[in-house]
Amino acid sequence: MGKTLEYPKESANTINRYKERGKYDLQTIHQLINTSPVLHVSFANDTDEDGFPALLPMIGQMGSFAYPSAGIDEPLDLYLHGYVSSRIMNLARKKQGEGEVTSNEASGMAVSIAATKVDGLVLSLTPNSHSYNYRSAVVHGYACLVSDPEEKIYAMRLITDSVLDNRWANTRTPPDKSEMSSTSILRVRVVNASAKVRAGAPHDDRKDTERADLVDSVWTGVVPVYERLGDPVPSLDNRVDEVPGYIRQYVERVNRLNEDYAMSVTRDK
Question: Is 267 helix (H, G, I), strand (E, B) or coil?
Fold first, then answer.
């Protein structure tokens, strides 16, 4: 049996409250990042006179250009996709232009990336004990603009196929010169990360569970929550009569996996 790789526990990523819910293994964290449609990326914004840190919703995926066959449980970089003149890309470009970082250095612009999934509404006897079943991950790392055209194409394909499996191969590719120039990719070298997972039934205090009047009058349990993809709707310009099999299969598989997981964590194991 192979060794389970984990991110190092440092001050920035160590779980303190409900530490038993903390997870540091690469597979859990990478899988959560890769199955989250939107990632929230935070970075210092030195162009804001009010001093607010910037926070952007972005699309991203874990991967390795150097080792494309690397598994989800192995060391990976995080690739972020964005418009060439967006704030985060301009700031990264500015720092690299000033010589603070280069795309080949083990450094870059400091970023924090978060992903969250809600798997259930946990309804308890008292308001204070209510919760969610959830999975969340926070990644810290250093971002640099990708300059190598081959690595850029690799990341664009990786991110496109994260939207829907095999979509890249079933579209007009590769991107043309205009599309390549209007898109920037950030590669984030992850230095630490952690996940926090809550699963199971409500956990009420004994002082409440021993009150017959309360237990007999308040419904407790879990309402499963899961993302569901709807039936594909053709565009006005679509001329393909049937929805391709790879799209139908993806929708069915994702819906099944999401529902199965949400249902599996409604009870304590």
Answer: coil
